[in-house]
Specification:
This protein has 160 residues and is an alpha+beta fold. 24% of the residues lie in helices and 49% in strands. A hairpin with a 5-residue loop joins strand 8 and strand 9.
Length: 160
Amino acid sequence: MKKLLILLLFIPLFIVSCSDIKKNKEYSKLKGAWFLESTIIYKKGVPVDTIAYNGVLNEIYTENYYITLVNNIDLDSITGIDKDLGFAESGEFKIENEYLIKKIKHGTGFMDDAINKWKKPGEDFLEAKFKIDISKNYFSKITYLDSLGNGSAELLKRIN
């Protein structure tokens, strides 16, 4: 009976340890620098097209912190000057069940206003949740998918 009791006490510890190992693998796969290569278009839940990204979007992930730098290209048709000033965001993140959950705490450009406008009362961050798929050199992040499966995902490529 005593051996059974000891065994029952160690099973939850083993389960927690295994989930921590899986969590650490997902975090380590995401850790590093990435750039947006293209946008994947979904129709009825199936990828149907890929559009090359024209601009700069870099994301850098550490153990639980990230920063995103963005400068889309929006050229004025008369002057040829880029009208997009770009923006940055940073904060904490976690990975749960194939979802990247960002706690956006800081932003430049419109992001500072977006955080303050859309964050929940009493919180100092805006939460954003994305379904992700991570491989060694790429990861996709579904940015929008409606109830019919129509939407898009970002395809990022590892820089380092």
